[in-house]
Amino acid sequence: MTNAPEIVLGVTGSIGAYKAGDLVRHLRDAGYGVTCVLTHRATKFMTPVSLQALSDRKVYTDLFDLEGPHILHTTLADHARVVLVAPATANIIAKFANGLADDLLSCILLATRAKILFAPAMNVHMWQHPTVQRNVTTLKRLGVRFVGPDVGKLACGYEAIGHLSEPEEIVRAVKQLVPVVGAPTGPAAAATPKAKSRPARRAAKRPTRKR
Ligand SMILES: Cc1cc2nc3c(=O)[nH]c(=O)nc-3n(C[C@H](O)[C@H](O)[C@H](O)COP(=O)(O)O)c2cc1C
Q1: Which residues make Cβ contacts (< 8 Å) with residue 141, sequence separation at least 6?
Q2: pLDDT score recorded for residue 192
Q3: How far apart (Å, rounded) are the C-alpha atoms in residues 207 and 55?
Q4: CB 132 near ligand 1, within 6 Å
Q5: In a domain, 210, yes or no
Q6: Residue 211 lies in a domain
């Protein structure tokens, strides 16, 4: 795992949080190390235990965690090559656009010098609200990247913009910011079957003698 670029994945309180597990799996398969940070509201939608198992790392939810590093938010902020927030609620977008720092994730966002990528997910009318659009514009001007939201079936029943981008699309956006150099070496990579070389394929076809 030594060459794996480190991602801090912030998960916020959207119905789309159920996709966070899949996203962790895709990121690890692509060769990234992933540390998950959940907001308090995100824990209503996705259990930290699931993300802990999938990331093979401790999951953080509390700014005042006593078991983590000495100063958790600055340690995670410094450790990240990319801070990815997926799904990103209207709330975290508003907080970051206005410099609020009232929980672990919002403190990391202010403390980091890493690249920042938001994957928003919300109701179409929330997304189109002028205050949300103003906050998105503010963040884009500050250099924050966005992937999505996409048009899709929303939990509220609309078929409209506001759908969290698919994990593959989010990973593509991460790769554009920080590509993985060399092949993944972690256990997630080991689980991916590799294409056999030609001699290996020939050997596999040879019948084995019964004893
Ligand atoms: C069932 C349900 C689904 C929600 N889905 C979203 C969502 O997709 N996007 C969003 O911006 N807010 C959504 N919310 C509202 C957020 O949970 C709320 O704004 C919360 O304060 C976000 O906190 P956080 O940004 O700290 O995680 C939802 C709330 C509920 C009860």
Answers
A1: none
A2: 36
A3: 40
A4: no
A5: no
A6: no
